[in-house]
Design goal:
The structure is a single chain. With 86 residues, the chain is an all-alpha fold. The N and C termini lie far apart (34 Å). It has a domain at 40-86. The protein contains four helices and no strands. Helix 1 runs antiparallel to helix 4 (64-85) and helix 3 packs antiparallel against helix 4 (64-85).
């Protein structure tokens, strides 16, 4: 009886182009890169967080909540890129 090969268990690492595309998607809309990676819970968390920051910024008239939303947007892009490269 032959053993199944380990090749099917080796994780596939995305190319730099794919990782970059998913990072750009997350820059356009936080969570979109994670959705493209089929990481739906992470994508929903990224999107929900930035919506909460923007809603808070609108309610309070801008300021630090808006800066947090921008920072979270960048974090989302870095997360999507790093997930594909790991």
């Amino acid at each position: 009886m032959s053993q199944p090969s380990n090749e099917s268990r080796v994780p596939v690492v995305a190319s730099r182009g794919q990782a970059g595309q998913r990072a750009v998607l997350s820059l356009l809309l936080p969570g979109l890169g994670q959705f493209a990676q089929h990481r739906f819970l992470a994508g929903a968390g990224q999107l929900g967080t930035v919506v909460a920051y923007i809603t808070t910024a609108a309610a309070l008239g801008g300021g630090s909540a808006l800066l947090l939303a921008i920072g979270w947007n960048v974090f989302s892009a870095v997360d999507a890129y790093r997930h594909d490269r790991s």
